[in-house]
Amino acid sequence: MRTVTLALCLLLGAGATRSQTHGSGDLLSHIDSLIAAIPSGTGSGEYQPPSTAERSDWEAMIGHILNEDYSVADSLAGILGYHLLAFQNTGTPSQGRHYILEKSQTSSSYWGTYIINPSPLRPDLMIMCPHPLYDRYTGRQGAYVYAAVAARMLAISGAHRCNSPLFSPCSGTTTACSSTSESYRISDLAHVTDGIFQTTTAAVMAFNDSTIQIQLHGFSKTATDPDIIMSNGTSLAPPAGQDYLVSLRDNLTVVDPTLTFKVGHLDTDWTRLLGTTNVQGRLINGSPAPCTLSASSATGGFLHLEQMYSGLRDTPQGWDKMATAIAMTFPPTATDVVTRSYHVPLAFAVRPNFPNPFNPATTITVELPQARHITITIVDILGRSVAILLDEERPAGTIQVRWDANAHPSGPYFCLVQAGEWRAVSRLMLLK
Questions:
Q1: Hey, where are the domains in the chain?
Q2: What dihedral angle (degrees, nearest 10) is formed by the CA atoms of 178, 179, 180, 181?
């Protein structure tokens, strides 16, 4: 019966079976509410792993979302105990539409929440938060980073890593759920290959083989520990030009010069918390059997970040440090000017540029409620024009303009926006 239902959904789309759910509001607040509903780490077993057939349906559903076949994807979501929410974000950052795969209230599929940006500035980036409860505030931090850098996808685990009393067959041990070392639990999605994190990673990689996954973790820092432990899931160096960890470390140092680091493939005497048993890392790094075999190479496409709590995970100001450094490490790859016609703003507004401070590029977002001839000009502190980013007629919508200030010196600049009778000025800080 299930096969017949699935076939009908694929042939007819969602219109024959259900209407897609729509919502609006502050995206970060909505994600916060979903994190608050995650079952705790009691070993009570709310988490149940998906079947082989369910994983296959999930992988097909992710493919349909990435190909913008939303009605078919929503029909598949319904079969899996989920729904695909078309969510209009009215908060900042990253206003506009997002698609949220979230568990239906009556469903027992605690497989996580997955948010997809249909118009990402960084389409290669995938942010993952495997332990949003155990690694305190990493789920909220991940949501902030995803929205601030306009990544392709955010994934947040749907149960505490210790929720299940059952153990993963995959290699590696931990003391996270017990006072003694034991195998990982099956509810720890960073350490099971039959979980939805692994299925989603495989689906995204099939859609885009340049995918870069950033996993946000946390650890209890001791007096001899650095503030951040970084690895690519191996102790091996990635190919030349793809060592994003080193670039991210350097950019974090620009954002906060007080931070200290250990980088797995550089600090070879450091062995703790390097993510070598993380199955998403093993998959991305090319292991033929991610459950049991460590990768024998590093692609550069997996960034495993263990962070101290104070100053990084505990406040939005700390989250912004990571978001700013990630934005500096991975410049936008979308076109320099994007008008999002699906979102018609209610009022004219110029959003805070991101990142700010920046080096060497930043993105300016303008909400244009009606078609206007719009000019966006950058001037220096003496009022001299240094760049004209836009000077043309534009339809109503959200306009994003990227300024690459590589040829300009450090210091404050001002962005002047004029659209008919509307005018606005914002301050930008270039920090080299």
A1: 2-329, 337-430
A2: 50
Preceding omega of 357 cis (within 30 degrees of 0): yes
3-state helix vs strand vs coil in the chain, percent to 5: 25, 30, 45
Say which CATH class 337-430 falls into. mainly beta
d(CA 294, CA 282) in angstroms, rounded, equals 6
**196-209 pLDDT tens trace:** 999 999 999 999 98
CA distances from 174 to 40, 45, 182, 213 (A): 18, 19, 6, 23
| Non-local CB neighbours of 411 within 8 Å, separated by 6+ positions | 380, 381, 429, 430
Ranges under pLDDT 50 in the chain: 1-17, 334-336, 338-343
Q: Give CA–CA dist 94/27, Å, rounded.
A: 9
**Cβ atoms of 81 and 117 closer than 8 Å:** no
Tokens of 102: 């979230």
Partners of 417 in beta bridges = 376, 424
Question: Which CATH number does the domain 2-329 belong to among 1.10.10, 3.40.630, 3.30.420, 2.10.260?
Answer: 3.40.630
Segments of 104-225 assigned E as strands:
113-116, 122-129, 151-156, 173-174, 182-183, 212-218
pTM score, whole prediction:
0.76
DSSP state of 237: P
Enumerate residues 6+ apart whose C-beta is below 8 A from 151: 117, 120, 122, 125, 126, 127, 145
> Tokens 């440090």 sit at which residue?
321
Phi/psi at 112 (5° precision): 115, 175
